[in-house]
Amino acid sequence: MSENDPKPIIRINGLSKHFGAVAAVDDVSLDIMAGEFFALLGPSGCGKSTLLRMLAGLESPSAGAILIDGEDMSRVPANRRPVNMVFQSYAVFPHMSVLDNVGYGLKVTGVPAAEVRARATEALELVKLDDLGARMPDQLSGGQRQRVALARALVKRPKVLLLDEPLSALDAKLREAMRLELVNLQETVGITFIIVTHDQEEALAMADRIAVMDQGVVRQVAPPAELYEFPASRFVADFIGSVNIFEGRVSEARDGVITIDAPALPRPLVVEQDKQVATGAKAWVAVRPEKIDIVKAGAGPLTETQEEAVNTVPGVVEEITYLGDLSIYHVRIAEGAEGLVKIAEPNFDRATNRPFTWEDAVMLSWTADAGVVLDS
Amino acid sequence: MSIFRPRRPPPGPLDYTRQTWMRLVLLGTFVFLYAPIATLVAFSFNDSKRNIVWRGFTTKYYEKALANEGLIEAFMNSMTIAVLSTVISTILGALTAYLLWRFKFPLKPVYEGAITLPIVIPEICLGVAMLVFFSRIGWPTGLPWPFNLGQITIAHVSFSFAFVAVVVRARMANFNPELEAAARDLGAGEWAVVRDIIIPHMRPGLVAGALLAFTLSLDDFVITFFTSGPDTVTFPVKVYSMVRFSVTPEVNAASTVLIVITVAVTVLALWIQNRQGADKSG
Ligand SMILES: Nc1ncnc2c1ncn2[C@@H]1O[C@H](COP(=O)(O)OP(=O)(O)OP(=O)(O)O)[C@@H](O)[C@H]1O
Ligand SMILES: [Mg+2]
Questions:
Q1: pTM above 0.95, yes or no
Q2: In angstroms, what is the span from residue A164 Cα to ligand 2's centroid?
Q3: pLDDT for res B5
Q4: Nearest protein CA to atom 14 of ligand 1, as residue
Q5: Which residues have CB under 8 Å from A226's CB, separation 6+?
Q6: Cα-Cα-Cα-Cα dihedral of B16, B18, B24, B25, to 10°?
Q7: Domains of chain A (ranges, CATH numbers)
Q8: Read out DSSP for B57-80?
Q9: Which of B29, B68, B231, B270 has fewest C-beta within 10 Å?
């Protein structure tokens, strides 16, 4: 995987695509390593598909360059690029049998019939469809059609496999199973996968690295855990998972500890983070809901975690969302403060034995290394 | 002991064909549509010069029709023209539809509208226009067969290709462009995409369009009348001239043959289409 072989298989340099006045992709530069499972993540319409289609050669860039395995692709048409794509609609040819579909990419480039058959059969085995080769696409389920599309792309042995929202048309259970299967498949074939998705959970679960896109611009590229724990901006923090954001100004930044005055909070926030910030500059502190501890106000001695916690805020429970495994508490801090603070607590006990309920006064606390300071 | 016999369940809300009133309407429609044709076919076997009273069964009018050289020649002309104009208008129509589907160009809506003109313009106007056009450019007459059929063939193509174009264009409207992208991504060049993906998708439209073009050409009277000369009489024109004297069973016999041919071609086309579907799923 990427650690063993850090050679970029794809280099994207200042790539842009304009549709009239709309910049679907705006000056994107990215390196994607050989053997990597890379995800392009972003909200609908942010230009993920356009970027992927440019890699495949199905859309020509307005500016910038794409290098695949060191070769400039600007003059190479789609049918001669060493990449293959799984389309959002799967685009399985309706008038060809499953086997013919999978073999098409070989047949059309002049591979002898016997080899086409052998390799297509092999590819169908890879996606566990070996006994459905004679079926027509309209006799397949959505999940099976997707496997055909996968086999059809993999049979070409591309250097990079591009997948445009491959799981979005499947139901929730199948989607989860396919995530695992795609990851396993990628490990088996050892081909670089670039997957487009608007589902952050999907990207976190599958990818080695994720590029978060917004309005044609790449906002951050990082491995899943880093993206989740250290988002670079409010957009990324908010897009990946759920987050509480407190706005304020830097009052002190020394020895890897940043103190921020947040007008909405009674006490300054303390964050342990190595980050260059100017005193007095505007900043935001992002804290994930599951990193906040919640207890009933004035109930007995402090717990160990609360002892350590340097950030404490009193509040009142305003809403409780029961999610089965978790409950989300929405807490109002201070009168007239805008927005509620979300706290996620696992339901160790049955929900009926909840320690506190609506309108209860509570104390929120989190440690210095729970939050992250953002400057944009 | 059971006294019940299994009964068919009562008709459901969508079982229209099992409702009596609906069956009556259907029956009425069929009678209205097919009674004249049935009569025509029946009387082609009538042993009587007058086409009014049934006098007994005979096939002699078929023999007579077969022996009528003028009729046979007209028939051959019609078939030749129909085949030629079907082939040409199917190709032209498909190309037009492809062009309209594939490319964006200035004034495209105007062009798209203009394509349907031959369908909406009264045939008589087209006929006159053709007549004027051919005499204006001095189209050579008296050419040997089958070149003397050129005028009529061109005239037929000029309106029937529009039907093909409209049918194929409608078919292309629900083409998933990702299919084309997928084919290109898999290594297909421009021509391979057309051959392997686009034409197979068009096929039902092509067959339907060709069928339309064939029957339109075969039974066209008005436009043909204006573009045919004394030595290029087509079947409908010939029948018309025969009927002007009297409606003999000979005309019935000839028409019956034409009906049989039309039906046979339709069945053949449907069969080809079905077989292709069955082949692939078999
Ligand atoms: N052919 C086109 N002509 C004009 N605008 C286009 C075209 N293709 C895409 N766009 C625009 O470019 C932007 C990005 O589109 P793109 O399809 O890449 O989004 P996406 O991130 O894939 O979204 P989704 O998640 O909905 O698929 C959108 O604003 C879209 O309207
Ligand atoms: Mg998309």
A1: no
A2: 7
A3: 64
A4: A47
A5: none
A6: 10
A7: 8-235 (3.40.50.300), 289-297+308-366 (2.40.50.140)
A8: B--HHHHHHHH-HHHHHHHHHHHH
A9: B29
